[in-house]
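In response to a reviewer's request, we include the raw inputs and outputs for one of the modeled complexes. The four entities were modeled together in a single run.
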Amino acid sequence: MPDRNVGGKVTKVDNPAANASGRSPRPAAPPLTERQRERRRRILHATARLACRGGFEAVQMREVAESSQVALGTLYRYFPSKVHLLVATMHDQLEQLHGTLRKSPPAGETAADRVAQTLMRAFGALQREPRLAEAMARALTFADRSVSPEVDQVSRQTTAIILDAMGGLENPTPEQLSAVRVIEHTWLSTLITWLSGRASLAQVRVDIGTVCRLIDLTDAGVRVQTPRPGPVGSG
Amino acid sequence: MPDRNVGGKVTKVDNPAANASGRSPRPAAPPLTERQRERRRRILHATARLACRGGFEAVQMREVAESSQVALGTLYRYFPSKVHLLVATMHDQLEQLHGTLRKSPPAGETAADRVAQTLMRAFGALQREPRLAEAMARALTFADRSVSPEVDQVSRQTTAIILDAMGGLENPTPEQLSAVRVIEHTWLSTLITWLSGRASLAQVRVDIGTVCRLIDLTDAGVRVQTPRPGPVGSG
DNA sequence: CGTTAATCTAGAACAAGTTTCAGACTTGAT
DNA sequence: ATCAAGTCTGAAACTTGTTCTAGATTAACG
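The model returned the following structure tokens for the whole complex.
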């Protein structure tokens, strides 16, 4: 009679992603049948739809369940909390965004320019559905330890996007990684600040530009780990 | 029969800080009697105590009310939501912290050094009560528009702390202000990331150091709006 | 003092996230 | 086809943030 958690089957009792202790790389990837993938898709779609309407608070679990034709218990089996659900939605959206961005790489001179351009483009994409963005961003920063794995996944996605914009270097130095982390933090924070009306778009643009200078800083003067001649400007 | 909101009395209907429209600098500062100040103090104290125990989720409104010997309705009159309550708590704590920091100014060579040192000191202070820090930080980033005035207040406090560390300059350039904002974002984000176990203390230190370089960057090589000969390096 | 508006209290009521349960349905292996 | 294990459903229950109400207290003012 096990129950709970679609993404990690254990014969006895299973705890979804609540690996509060630390390690344990999630038992195994459970195949997930066709119907199940379909359900999951419906849920994420309904979530995005509701979020577009009224943001974080409009995403109500009962509504999501009904709207995606799934029982409440099932919804909770797929996503153990509202925050998990919205972080998964963000992952989904970022996936699409990353795809879009890949198709038309930024055209700036310096790495900093390209990153800034990419981030502003991402910003523009989210801006198009501000309530959805609000819902996802708030979930992301409100997430507690029980959502760490999922949040980390989103973080890695963002990192990938930024590294891509920098020129797809494969062996970033620790300094560069630190700069990328700072840029990530700034990006998300400015997004939230803008969404809650505490900063203007102009301010966002300036701040993104400011933080991106960190790239030039680490690009040049620092001892690089591996100066391999990767394809920096092409794609 | 007016009711609701201790901090802004209007004869007819009063809305606390829910100035969603934008302006309106909060009708007037209502004197606030002795008993009331005492109640407010009790509430904030109880909040901090509960938060120290179990973080955000341990701060339960009924508990806070009971623990501070105040009716639930009264608690809500003083702080219109749990988030308001915790943001106010953060303001309170930052006040104390700022006082402490003022007493022993940072001793670095460059402005960047001093800011980094100050931020790490602040980090250390919050680290001492990680659950309290978690509760406050999560409330701060989860806050929606209805809490904007209070969040802004906290933001101004943080800005003041950083500017102090830079040497108390009174006419920061737009570039410098942008750098300060980015530093603020980074500080809060790394705090949260550390609190939720997704980053090590070492990483935090590195990232704070990284972002603080932006200060040197704006300190020197950039075309400044007003090149007035202010005391930039002395403090 | 006595009046009157504002504030405070106790407690019920409501809303939305989360959990639980019994029973129906699927799936996979024999 | 059948059995066991795992999944899904519908509905109720529980938790905690938030709102509401009626009556008791307090404070300012004459």
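As requested, we also summarize the result in words. Chain A has a mean pLDDT of 85. Residues 1-3, 6, 9, 11, 36, 39, 70-74, 77 of chain A lie near DNA strand D (CB under 10 Å from a C1').
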